[in-house]
Amino acid sequence: MKLLSWNVRGLGKPRARSRLHATLRDVRPSVIFLMETKLQAGEMLRVRQRWGFQNGIEVGSRGRSGGLCLAWRVDCDVTLRSYSERHIDVIISRDAEERCWRFTGFYGAPEENLRAESWALLRQLNDSPEIPWMVLGDFNEILYTREKQGGRLRLQRQMDAFQTAIDDCGLSDIGYSGRWFTWEKGKFSLTNIRERLDRGIANGGWWEMFPLFSLSHLEDSLSDHCPLLLNTGSDSNGPRQAHFRFEAAWLVEDSCEQEVIKLWNESVGLVPDRLACVNRGLNQWFRRLRCSQKISTAMLKERLEMLVEQDPTDEVLGDIMDTRLALNLEIDKTELYWEQRARANWLRHGDQNSAFFHRFASERKRRNRITSLNSMQGIRGEKELEIHTIARDYFTDIFSSSHPVDFSRILEGIRPRHSDE
What we know:
- By secondary structure, this protein is α+β, with helices and mostly antiparallel strands.
- It folds into 3 domains: 2-231, Endonuclease/exonuclease/phosphatase (Deoxyribonuclease I, Chain A), CATH 3.60.10.10; 248-367, no CATH class; 371-421, no CATH class.
- It is built from 11 helices and 18 strands.
- Helix 3 (115-125) runs parallel beside helix 4, helix 6 (256-266) runs antiparallel to helix 7 and helix 8 packs parallel to helix 9 (355-367).
- The longest helix is centred in the last third of the chain and has 38 residues, at 271-308.
- It is flat.
- 23% of the residues are buried.
- The model is unreliable at 234-240, 343-352 and 358-363 (pLDDT under 50).
- Residues 4-199 form the Endonuclease/exonuclease/phosphatase domain.
- GO terms for molecular function: catalytic activity.
């Protein structure tokens, strides 16, 4: 699930709405939390519905300041707990099998003298510590002096008050990837100020529930705040190029051999080029096949349900037997597909597949995934191409000799010998 949090600094102008809509199309979040919309509730309702978010909660602005919106798509189950001018608190779940968790969109007071009220609100919201809890938004405060560059120094007591409130609630900062600051002011170096005012904080239950999460600071020119994209499944690097792997399920398909022959005859070039063509063709063929198998399985189940409701004549019983055989064959193909991915023989022929097994079969891939690497110069790379480059440079360096040795002096002390033969 992806959640986008953003202090948009006003959506009254069509250009601002257009820019935000473009960002939503790019990252496709399931849930969005917007701050400082500067719109009344009814107007914000119409705007987010045009973006495809039919469900949501709006807190109208006061004049030309404030305004919150939490909106979600139809595939999310969201229950409202509470809201105010500074927060929207909900319970989220995606499906019946997913454990519920709590999300609070938080907007800290911009005024320094009202900051204590924000921390009091945060403590007040800490009423269910047993529920996994994530708080995301613009807190209008930093935790450490290193989180600010330029301008006057932040008072230590202000940062301590924020840290104490977080500690009292059993929350901790979840970190980030991307640029270090989330807010910027000033176009010249002498007046430029950068601060990390936006962040995510979560309790231990949420960390355990989503061990592969990621929080990214995105780039955008709509607001002086950058968008925060929370991904609970850690797929921030996007799709990766799949390696060729032989599928055991191919062997039970009668058309497999003919497909290989056809792809080989249609390919041109050297053997590696022709193998690459066969690889791509087989993967495309199998994806089409998997899709048709799902449709075929559903149709066979419907036909079987219809047949068993009819009178048990010889013809009907024969059709039932044929349908069951065909359905079992399709199920066996699916079982074989998931058994190969498990890398452990958990399935026995004829066993029932389960959603739990599907999750387990993919766990190894998630656990072994590399999301970032640091180069030898200390530069962090998170994109797939950057990770590949850093890994290649590292192994090239360790397997290359920078100071070749003249071995002739070493071999001078060795007397050559050879046998009579």
